[in-house]
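Form 7-S
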Amino acid sequence: MNRIVILLCIVGLLATCNDKKEPKSSSSQQTLPPAIDTQIPTLHYVIVNRYPHDEKAFTEGFLFHQGELYESTGSPDNLPQTQSFIGSVDLKSGKITKKVELDSSIYFGEGIVFLNNKVYQLTYKNKLGFYYDAKSFKKLGQFTYENEEGWGMTTDDSSLIMSDGTSHLTYLDPFTLRPVKTLTVTENGLEMTHLNELEYVKGFIYANIWLTNSIVKIDARNGKIVGKMDLSPLTSEIRYTHPNTAELNGIAYNPANGHVYVTGKLWPTIYELNIVD
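Output:
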C-alpha cells in the first residue's frame, strides 16, 4: 500500500515539473511591442541622360514651366565670373538665355517659382523679393519678408513656399505676399536644417541639403522626411574632371516624363534621373 502512495506522489511531482517547463499559453500574456524602424528609406534612381550645363552658372533655382527649363543664379563676391539672373536653359547646348538680371553689386539672386502668370524671385540677404510677368519678364513689383535670408522657392499651386537655410519652410500668400504658415521639417523627430533649393511634387517637397550630396523627400502635410537620395556618385563624377565645382543644388521635376533633373553650382552637367522610391 505504501508503495502505491509513493508511486502516486512521484507521478504528481513529475506532472508539476512539466507544467513549469511548458506554461500554458494565455490571451492575457504580455508581449513586447514591435521594434520601431527609424531608418529613413533610401530613394533609388537611374541616370536616364546627361546634358551640358553652363559652368559659370551658380545655380540657386531650377524648375520646369510649360515644358521649358528655367534657372536662377547667384553671384558670390569671390567669383567675379558669376552673375545673378533668371534664364531659360537649352538642354542641347547648356546655354542660358537671360530673361532678368540683377545688379550683382546689390543683390545676390536666389530661388524662383512660377505661379498665377508671374515669376517670383528671392534675394539672399536683402529680405527682398521681386516678381515679374511670366511671359515678358517685365518687373511688376517687389516684396519684403521677415526671414533673415532667402534661399529656395517652390509652390503647391496655392502658396509660395520658401526656404531660408533653417529647418523651417515659410508659406506665403501669392496675393498679399505675407506668411500664412510655417512648416518645420524633421527627420526622426529632429529638425533638419540647411534646406536649400526646393521642388514640390505630388504632395511632397524635395529639398537639397546645403553642403551635402543629399536630397530629402518631405511630406508636405507634416514636415516629416520620408525618403533620402544620395547623389554622391554624381558629385564624384563631376569633381573627377572639374575639382573646382561647388555643391549640389537644383531640382527640377518635368511632369511630361515624370523625371527629375538635377545639377549643381558651376557644374558642367545636368542629370536626368528616374527616381524609383
